[in-house]
Amino acid sequence: FNSLSGSFPATIIRNLTQLRILKLGFNRIGGQIPEWLGEMSYLEELWMGAGLYDRPLPPQLGNISLLRILAIYNNSFTGSIPKSLGDLSRLTGLSLEYNNLTGSIPPELGNLTHLELMRVGGNSLSGSIPSEYGRLISIQQFSAQYNNFSGRIPAEMGNCSALALIKLYNNRLNGAIPPQLGLLRLLGELHLERNQLTGTIPESLSNCTSLQHLSLGYNLLRGKIPPSIASLRNIVHSFSMPHNRLSGQIPAEIGSMISVTVVDLAGNLLSGKITESLGNCVQLLQLNLSNNQFTGPIPRSLRLSGRIPNRGVFKNLSASSFVGNPDLCAQECPAPSSGGLSNWSKFGIIGGSFAIEALVLTAIVYIIYVYRRQILNLKRNQLQYPAQTQQDLFVEREIVIVRPDELFIATAGFSDANIIGSGKTATVYRGALNISGRQTDIAVKRFKDEMQDNIAVDGNLIAEVRALAMARHRNLVRLLGYCLAPMSKALVMDLMSNGTLASHIEQQTLKWESCMRIAWGVAQGLMYLHHECPEPILHCDVKPSNILLGMDFDPAIADFGISRILKYGDNSTSNIKGSFGYMPPEYGFNGRMTSKGDVYGYGVVILEMVSGKNPTSQTFSNENSLPKWALRAAIDGKPLQIIANSFLVLDDGVEATEKQM
């Protein structure tokens, strides 16, 4: 993550004979990897992602016997994958994706029994996927999308019992989906779309009880959708099978997917009535059933509402096409009665007030910012904010499984003296743990006894924890490991040196420059969670106690995704989302969490920083709130009432008054 340029720094590196980790990624270094790099016998990690390398990979890389991670993705490497890489017996991570590699993938890679992650997508590789890869007993992720692979998916992949993710989309694979994939109980994502797969959908996939994302579209699959697959309750993302040759009715069992967000069955030969059970999919955001042969009315359970378009395919439809949907109207929809509001009206009013309030909050912060800049006469380049760096898509450190006795020792028996924070679901302890041979300062988030039984330990939970570990950003607290032993469930995270933002607000120790740095960093972290991480994550509880501060007051968001972990138990945990004072008002109407709720919480955090006022205090009760209080001050032309006194004093101790403005 620098701006280094030129060729591989051979003169410097060749003399570092005991070098263990070499990271040259995200620079403008290119050319060729020297053959002598294979003589670096102590090298354990080689990171050269996102560079300008455009030559073949030297086969001498296979001589680095201690190598655990080889990450040379997002370059322009040419030629074939060296067979010698199959000699790297300690390799756990291999990322060669998005280069210009050609030829077949070597069967010799099947010898890497410790390999946990293999990514070769985004190249021009061809040939078949070797059956020898069924010997990869430790493999958790296998990604080979966007290539020219042909032939069958090897049935031997069913032997890879640790597989959690398979990406084979956009290839030329043919033949049937092997029923042996149903042996993969930890499989969370299966992407086989845009190939030439034939045959029926194997019912054995219903055994993949951890499956969250199933994508089989744009193939030549035929037959019926197996009811057993349609009843996979853990699918929370996509149930996608468009543009095949599937026939028959949509199984009523699809209503068991109560958390699915996308159902796409377009472009098939499905017929009969659309099942009423789709109405049970209460989290559904996208439903595409177009270009099939359905008959009968649209199910009332879908609760469609609003005006029917009078153009295009709707122009010549009769009223019978929409029978059973009383909330649909052909022309002007009637206004809601005075007795109440329709759901859509409620959403409109709530959304409108939220937008106005957010706009005012932004204006307030901007007024305060401009005011302080005028008083202090800051130059444009005086404050340097850390730019958002392009994220490394390859996990640098494997998340570790920690034993209960290790946590007990690391925290001195969960001593009260090591408590650094406590909330309604967990207590956080300071500790030290040996991770990958290094003594590391850690924070252990141990879930409270009453929560332990609410966390169901299954493949879905493990996949969820690993998904959180994939979220890597400088403004997120890094997840290092976890413990799922009975009554000892805990997460292990990086320890931040300056504690929580909440403690600094309470003690009024923040400087204005630190506030700006914190606001900037938290915004970057939330943007990454919502839009840029491998799988979008809602925080659901943005507040100062969940924002930790590093040595230079660079913020890191903690507890992101915790609500997703807690949801795997008793239904009572579904209410453990958000904190009073930081939740938008619409949560009281529909209870549905969105990214806008995180943004609202972020706005409250900013107001709390600059005002020093706690939004949960008795001052803000009943109909009052911190945002409304700030809004009234701004409307009354008294924005300085919002600013804490500590920010109204210049660095030399002179008070800044309204008169000085």
Automatic annotation (TrEMBL):
SUPFAM superfamilies: Protein kinase-like (PK-like) (SSF56112), RNI-like (SSF52047). It is found in: Membrane. Coiled coil: none annotated. Its EC number is 2.7.11.1. It is an enzyme of class 2 (transferase). The keyword Ligase does not apply. Residues 414-661 form the Protein kinase domain. The chain crosses the membrane at residues 347-371. GO terms for molecular function: ATP binding; protein serine/threonine kinase activity. It catalyses: L-threonyl-[protein] + ATP = O-phospho-L-threonyl-[protein] + ADP + H(+); L-seryl-[protein] + ATP = O-phospho-L-seryl-[protein] + ADP + H(+). This is non-specific serine/threonine protein kinase. It comes from Taxus chinensis.
